[in-house]
Amino acid sequence: RVYAPRTYAVEREKRSKPIANGIFSWIPAVLRVPDEQIIQRSGLDTYMFLRGIRSNLIIFAAIGVVSAATILPINILGTNGLRGLDSLSIGNVDSKSSRLWVHVGFFALIVVWTLWNIVGELRIYTHLRMWWLMHPNHACRAQASTVLVTDLPKTLVGNEKRLFRMLDTFPGGVRQVFVNRSSDELTDTVKKRDRLAAKLEKMLTKYAVKCVKTYEKASLRGDMYVQPPRPVIRKGPLSLFGSKVEAFEYLAAEIAMCNHYIAQSLKQMKDFKREPSALVMFNKQIAAHMAAQVVLDYKPFSMGNVTVDVNPEDVIWSNLKISPWSRRIRGYISFGITLALTFLWTIITAFFSGLIQVGELTKLEAFSWLTKNKYALGIFSGTVPSLVIALMMTLLPHILRLLLRLEGTPRFSLIDLRLLHRMFFFQVWNVYLVNILSSSSLAIVTNALSDPTSIFTRLQEDVPKSAINILTYVLLLTFIGAAKEILQGFSLAMRYLVPLLFAKTPRKIYSAEKPTEFNWGATIPTHTLVFLFGFSYTFIAPYVTWFVALYYAIFYIIYRYQFLYVYNDSKWVTGGLSYPKSIQQIL
Are 475 and 469 in contact, with CB atoms under 8 Å apart? Predict the structure, then answer.
């Protein structure tokens, strides 16, 4: 249920065959699955993600082999007298040695090799995306030829025929135009009906269980079964005030009244308030893609956001009401908060990292009592900072998603696609530039201010030393991250806690049995960051590339299993749009 839910809890055509028992039997089983079946079972998004991991593995495996035969012997035979892993870096080679030209040629070679691989993968992605768009399974769907147009001008909001004529010039013409409408009363009634239905289902399930237990007790004692009294509730607000009534009949009557109101409201949809957005269904798929790529109005921000392949479940309907100017202002505010959060995170991380320094912590008057309790001091300075930072890193994607939603992003999938860039920017600053390179950067800047002529010497001496920090971080991600991905600790805990504490109805039990979803927006930037680590140190400390290749090899095998047997991202269907965004981050 946790480690192989896709063998039974998904559509039959997307299920994977069970794997034989054995600790490592899953590795050859997932490696034998052809790429075509991965696309069929998990979709193009999953396949392009796995292909990107495999491409990075090939890039760094080749770089590691070539570096071991070229620049690594030169580094070992250097004359600067460095020891340990530092003797394998470029810092062990004299700055005036002519052998450094080998490093320059090696770096030029790996740039060409990397770009050649990226261009080749982008060509394959282009062909696969065209195949996916034109495949009958996708092209036959209504969403394939439907676009969502937001920020409609007032002249088109109340004139559907004019909007129809304007877009009917595309090949095949327009099949139908739906100007979105809204009704707060209808929305509130639907929410009320759902709450009442959930409450009735919960009470019916609880009463049914009570009846079964009563019947079993009566059977054991040989007594006649007597049906337990039905539950009662109060009619007032929150069921706390008002007269008592029989719960089942009252809730059923309330649900029926809500259904009647909803049915009557749907007959009067023309009276609902029109919103500045519309769904346009074309007769041909190519017309939808053409409409999404052309300028529909000459006015600034008017009809500027046109998206294709619209799934109603993916649309954030409340954000369609936002005006284009308000959306633009919200975007600036959201981006400003993201920048502030990124830089504030540096201060917070530095503060909690400073708690580990026992001497500095006890100098504060508020924490002086810790000197008398070494056990409490050890827990506070060693465990608390790590837990707080881990909790903050867990909350970060949710905070960024909330900001992207509040700024008016119209689709859930678009939020995750935009989250890729914000998470990558955050990690590059706080992980790569601040936490790992802070020591070498600070030393270089300090010496450059006192002696500007020494900057190149300090670069040669201090930057290679930071490779140890890079290597440590990559190894932590490789083994701890891989173990976390395989064990699925949170999903395992929720699998038993949710049914035990919260899932008391058949509907909630069914929801608890659903396979987990992959966190695209927060996970892809981490793998791109590792690429940045490895590429920036290919000629500075070539041994880093060996462990980066190991990182991608381990995660490639793990993710093949996870996407075939664990994750089910039926709502994440973008046709591989996350892949070019990750390539953009690499470049």
Answer: no
Q: In 10 A of CB 460, how many CB atoms?
A: 19
Three-class SS string for 393-441?
A: HHHHHHHHHHHHHHCCCCEHHHHHHHHHHHHHHHHHHHHHHHHHCHHHH
Better-predicted residue by pLDDT, 378 or 65: 65
Annotate 455-492 with three-state secondary structure: HHHHHHHHCHHHHHHHHHHHHHHHHHHHHHHHHCHHHH
Q: Which residues of 507-533 are buried (b: 16+ CB within 10 A; e: fewer)?
A: ebeeebeebbebebbbbbbebbbbbbb
> For 279-307, b where at least 16 C-beta lie within 10 A, e where not — what string?
bbbbbebebbbbbbeeebeeeeebbbbbb
| pLDDT at residue 118, as a whole number | 92
Question: Contact, 501 vs 508, CB < 8 A?
Answer: no
Q: How far apart are CA 539 and CA 90, in angstroms?
A: 7
Question: Which is nearest to 420 in space by CA: 580, 314, 578, 587?
Answer: 578
Own/partner contacts of 295-299, CB < 8 Å, gap of 24 or more, are 296/149, 296/166, 296/167, 297/153, 299/153
**Chain centroid to CA 167: how far?**
35
Total-model pTM: 0.81
Please answer whether residues 279 and 148 qualify as being in contact, where contact means their C-beta atoms are separated by less than 8 angstroms: yes
Instruction: Give me the count of residues in the chain.
Output: 587
**R_g of the chain, CA atoms, integer Å:** 30
Q: Tell me the per-residue pLDDT of 280-320, one tens digit each, with 9 for 90 and over.
A: 888 888 888 888 888 777 777 777 788 888 888 888 888 88
